[in-house]
Amino acid sequence: MSLDTPTAPGETTAQAPRLEVAHLSCVFDGREVVRDVSFRVAPGEIMCLLGPSGCGKSTTLRVIAGIERQSAGSVHADGKMLCNEVFSTPPEARGIGLIFQDFALFPHLTVGQNVSFGLRGPKARVQARVGELLERVDLVGYADKTPHMLSGGEQQRVALARALAPRPRIMLMDEPFSGLDNRLRDGIRDETLQLLKEEGTAVVLVTHEPEEAMRMADQIALMRDGQIVQKGAPYNIYNAPCDKAAAAFFSDIN
Ligand code: ADP
Ligand code: MG
Predict the structure, then answer these.
(1) Cα dihedral across residues 147, 151, 156, 160: positive or negative
(2) Which of 85, 153, 205, 239 has the maximum number of C-beta atoms within 10 A of its C-beta?
(3) CB-CB neighbours of 199 under 10 Å
């Protein structure tokens, strides 16, 4: 395809970012809780939305997922529009994986059934994918166990395998590690990051912890009062915070 070939509606271009959020705003009860938020995420890249509680991080994620509607702005994936002010692709048709803090597994299903829940196709292929994922999250031999037999960290890894199973182009993670104790957290965070990079998934990770953003992000979008106040590589933001409040926010890291 030559570069000047026009792109038909619904067609994608090689140049388009995996995820593009443009000028997103959300008004609740007359209050603008997300204001003109824009960012792009490439395949295999981790974008961290970082900011204090109430600054609009989760609302931004919910709009991208399609479970909340924006007042203005648009979301595109691989150049294809997912939603704008008047149009919305249903959440299940967006090719987006979600992991939230309370990563609830289906308690009555086995680990294997949880991981294969969103998969369609021949049984052998589904089983192979489940086996591959359980291996990657280091849970070989767990397929027939039920969630109540697992520790918090193990359940978290099952949730990760389940979210990755249908090979989402985009993964949205809302404070996914905050329920884990410190001892487990570092290992699970690093494994998760590795897995998502290998799968080439574009990740938006929400956190209120600067240390977590510094450790995991390729890019950080620092949010305050619904807006992105600074965007860039972790060490650039850490070394040159845009104002005193941003500097204070990072000052707890040791
Ligand atoms: P964060 O994830 O950064 O803590 P949220 O996106 O959850 O922030 O919330 C941003 C603001 O929007 C908060 O003041 C919250 O109370 C408000 N809010 C979130 N969802 C709704 C809703 N559905 N209706 C009204 N207000 C909401
Ligand atoms: Mg939140």
Answers:
(1) negative
(2) 205
(3) 17
Is 57 touching ligand 1 by the criterion CB < 6 Å? Answer: yes
DSSP state of 154: H
Strand order in the sheet with 31-41: 31-41, 19-28, 72-77, 80-83
* Residue (of 15, 18, 82) closest to 45 by Cα position: 18
Best residue for ligand 1 mutational test, from 59, 173, 175, 222 (most atoms within 8 Å of Cβ)? 59
pLDDT tens per residue across span 49-65: 999 999 999 999 999 99
Starting from the CA of residue 175, give the closest ligand. 2
Q: How far is the CA of 213 from the centre of ligand 2 (A)?
A: 15
Q: Which runs of E-coded beta strand occur in the chain?
A: 19-28, 31-41, 46-50, 72-77, 80-83, 96-100, 170-174, 202-207, 219-224, 227-232
CA 54 – ligand 1 centroid, Å: 6
Whole-number Å distance between alpha carbons of 103 and 179? 10
Cα-Cα-Cα-Cα torsion 210, 208, 39, 100, nearest 10 degrees, comes to: 130
SS3 140: coil
The two tokens of residue 119 are: 């998969």
Q: Is the CB of 106 under 6 A from ligand 1?
A: no
**Closest ligand 1 atom to the C-alpha of 223?**
3
Question: From CA 16, how far away is CA 20, in angstroms rounded?
Answer: 8
pTM of the model: 0.87
- Smallest CA separation from ligand 1 atom 15, residue: 54
- pLDDT value for 249: 87
- Tallying the residues shown for the chain, one arrives at 254
